[in-house]
Automatic annotation (TrEMBL):
InterPro entries hit by this protein: Peptide/Ni-bd, SBP_5, SBP_5_dom
GO biological process, one term: peptide transport
Annotated Gene3D superfamilies: Dipeptide-binding Protein, Domain 3, Periplasmic binding protein-like II
Protein name: ABC transporter substrate-binding protein
GO molecular function: peptide transmembrane transporter activity
Pfam families: SBP_bac_5
Gene Ontology CC annotations of this record: ATP-binding cassette (ABC) transporter complex; periplasmic space
Basic and acidic residues bias (residue ranges): 499-510
SUPFAM superfamilies the record matches: Periplasmic binding protein-like II
Region: Disordered, residue numbers: 492-522
All residue ranges annotated as the Solute-binding protein family domain in the record: 94-437
Length: 522
């Protein structure tokens, strides 16, 4: 049986329950946290205990915890809803509710459904209710993001589910790993809404949701892979970063999602875990209009930038200087750059020209607090190299259309490089393909399009990873964009937390292996 998670986890020693922040008389904190269920009373012979995990999360549900929305990632991070397939660290598909699968023909896949699985309401998992659950996602309006632009039909055949796509899609198994395609019991789909309470298959049963305040989950004793170590999870939604950091600092929370960089200094360093994210802060250069149509000036901009000073000054050292479009959250990226094929693609890069006072306008947005600061640093660096730089900084909703239309000579963007399938090809096609829907660089290259087409068609595994890295090199060779840094998220864990997942894809957090010790023993 495959392990529950291939995500690296922290394994020290641990404690117990209840989160109520009534004891914390700090500004903004009163009433932030859900009330826990009482103190732990010990550990059972099977490794389980009465200890509960107190979890502080960044954002409340936006769509009633519907798995067809981005709220699905909360259900996944609580280990209450499961998918047919999971992804390992490299992004390869592994069994979950499906034990195996095969590609029947170019557009058809067959998935064998695991025996002995029950939903939290006691209903048996069958191919029929798996197909019905997926069909609800396929026909949803709007469609879940993972199915955007994908035509798919689903049908049960004996103990298997057959998935057929309109076009050849080598990533069907990876798509079915998306939390937005979680399998819920038939009773979850009564009416127009989707109700996950009591209807998942995971090691924790979602038993109550308190609006946008919190949620309660209990250990599901009959989970197909064995009972969870912790008795349950008490979730509190705490949008205020100061409050989340204070909960970690005072010990009111066991695990805290997304501690702000600005608050990290207020917390003991050994309570913070930095998780590399598949998100790259990039300077996109307009290759269609203006100064950066000249490859020599694009090269001059590349050589002028000092990403390390941005990492040190804006991110307080809590980011990684970019070596390419894909960062350390993509485990094969560094190795993929250490090849002759990759280096050869970069060998004919243009040499830097003289900016000679060339005027350029750089756009970015205020919604991510660090980006205006990044813009100021880049302005200084480019002006030192000889450019004359004007900044245009607005809220994202007021600047996106201009960015996509090529209004700016350059644009600073923090961009997710791995989307719901766990694969970066969709991001690369969107941003650097001639017909890309998010092509801020207004970039079109036959060589890059050919490399992207090869990557899109490649089979998952080594063949696809090699093609992805060659496509990255092809983009960088033409300086359509200058990757500057890869972001990290700071996850808070008390020093006696064991087994909390540190997942760059933000799909896992509290797992069946996560344990806490009694609060009184801390």
């Amino acid at each position: 049986m495959p392990p529950r998670s291939s995500v690296p986890v922290h394994r020290p020693a641990r404690r117990a329950t209840g989160l109520g922040l009534a004891a914390v008389s700090l500004l903004l904190l009163t009433g932030c946290f859900a009330e826990g269920s009482g103190a732990a009373s010990g550990e059972g012979s099977d490794g389980s205990s009465d200890a509960r995990v107190e979890l502080a999360m960044l954002q409340p549900p936006r769509s009633g915890l519907s798995p067809l929305s981005d709220d699905a990632f909360k259900l996944s991070r609580w280990s209450t809803a499961e998918t047919l397939v999971r992804l390992d660290e490299a992004g390869d598909a592994r069994p979950m509710l499906a034990t195996e699968w095969e590609q029947v023909d170019d557009t058809t896949w067959s998935f064998t459904i695991r025996d002995g699985v029950t939903f939290h309401d006691g209903t048996e998992l069958t191919a029929e209710n798996v197909a019905a659950s997926l069909e609800r996602a396929v026909t949803a309006e709007p469609a879940p993001r993972i199915l955007d632009g994908v035509e798919m039909t689903v049908a049960a055949e004996g103990d298997t589910v057959r998935v057929t796509t309109a076009e050849t899609d080598p990533l069907v198994p990876q798509r079915l790993s998306s939390p937005q395609l979680s399998i819920l019991a038939p009773a979850a789909y009564e009416g127009t809404a989707v109700d996950p309470v009591g209807h998942g298959t995971g090691p924790f049963e979602l038993t109550a949701v308190d609006g946008t305040s919190g949620a309660t989950l209990e250990r599901y004793e009959d989970h197909w892979d064995g009972a969870a170590a912790a008795a349950g999870i008490d979730v509190s939604f705490v949008p205020d970063g100061t409050a989340r950091a204070a909960a970690l600092r005072t010990g009111e929370a066991d695990v805290v999602e997304a501690v702000p960089v600005g608050q990290a200094a207020q917390v003991e360093e050994d309570l913070l875990e930095e998780v590399p994210m598949p998100r790259t802060n990039t300077l996109y250069l307009n290759t269609e209009d203006g100064p950066f149509t000249d490859p020599a000036l694009r090269a001059a901009a590349r050589e002028a930038l000092d990403p390390q000073s941005v990492v040190d000054g804006v991110y307080e050292g809590r980011a990684d200087v970019a070596a390419g479009l894909l960062g350390p959250a993509i485990p094969y990226a560094a190795e993929g750059r250490d090849t002759d094929a990759y280096r050869e693609l970069l060998a004919d890069r243009a040499e830097a020209g003289d900016p000679a006072g060339q005027k350029i306008t750089i756009g970015t947005f205020t919604d991510r607090a660090e980006l205006p600061e990044v813009a100021v640093q880049l302005q200084q660096q480019l002006e030192q190299a000889g450019f004359e730089v004007e900044l245009d900084v607005r809220e994202y909703q007021y600047i996106e259309a201009d960015a996509l239309e090529g209004t700016f000579d350059a644009f600073i963007l923090s961009r997710a490089t791995v989307l719901d399938s766990g694969d970066p090809v969709a991001y690369m096609v969107s941003d650097f393909g001639c017909e890309g829907s998010f092509n801020i660089s207004q970039f079109c290259s036959e060589a890059v399009d050919a490399a992207l087409d090869k990557a899109e068609k490649a089979a998952p595994g080594e063949e696809r990873r090699t093609a992805i890295m060659e496509a990255e090199a092809a983009v960088l060779a033409e300086d359509a964009a200058i990757p500057m840094l890869h972001e990290r998220v700071i996850q808070g864990e008390q020093d006696d937390v064991e087994g909390a997942a540190r997942d760059p894809r933000e799909r896992e957090l509290i797992t069946a292996e996560t344990t806490v010790a009694e609060r009184g023993n801390r």
